Structures are given as structure tokens and as C-alpha cells.
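Whiteboard transcription, Tuesday session. T.W. wrote the C-alpha cells on the left side:
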């Protein structure tokens, strides 16, 4: 007997349009195509009680995957948070 696998989750390059009915939806998001960085994200329309709306403008939460890295040419690699602290213009990395 052959082992069965669950349905494959596609890797998305853009966040899908969602509604509160999609609460808990999980996706694979291609955060950095050049380096093959894929993040697992979950849509949180409600707080933990499942009734109270999530007040945050950022309803996609990171639940897995490697960190996004950068190199500035003069220092060794650092985290995305360190990169944001070094630049005058901050690129929004959060999802609405």
C-alpha cells in the first residue's frame, strides 16, 4: 500500500485577498526568490478567544521559515531588523 500525502500547499508570491472567514488560513510565502526564502504565514482575523477582532493592521503572522538576511557590503551578514536600523528609509516588511 502506498503512503498517501496531504494536499500540497503552493508557494505564493503575493498575499491572497482574505476576509474574516479565512481566519487561521496558512500559506507558504516566497519572501526572497533569489535566495529561496519561504515563510509559513497564518492569517489572524481574531484574537485567541476566536470572537474578538484582531485590532492589528498586520494580520499575517510569521509561523515558520528561515530568517531574511542581508549583506551591506562592508559588514558581515545580519538580520532584517539590523538592516532596518541602518537605513534612513525603512521598507515595510509586515503584511497588511
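and on the right, the sequence the group agreed on:
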Amino acid at each position: 500500500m502506498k503512503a498517501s500525502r496531504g494536499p500540497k500547499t503552493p508557494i505564493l508570491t503575493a498575499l491572497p485577498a482574505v476576509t474574516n472567514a479565512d481566519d487561521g488560513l496558512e500559506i507558504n510565502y516566497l519572501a526572497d526568490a533569489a535566495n529561496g526564502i519561504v515563510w509559513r504565514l497564518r492569517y489572524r482575523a481574531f484574537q485567541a478567544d476566536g470572537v474578538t477582532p484582531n485590532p492589528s493592521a498586520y494580520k499575517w503572522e510569521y509561523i515558520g521559515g528561515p530568517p531574511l538576511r542581508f549583506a551591506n557590503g562592508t559588514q558581515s551578514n545580519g538580520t532584517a531588523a539590523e538592516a532596518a536600523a541602518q537605513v534612513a528609509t525603512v521598507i515595510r516588511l509586515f503584511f497588511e
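Someone added at the bottom: Helices lie at 80-86.
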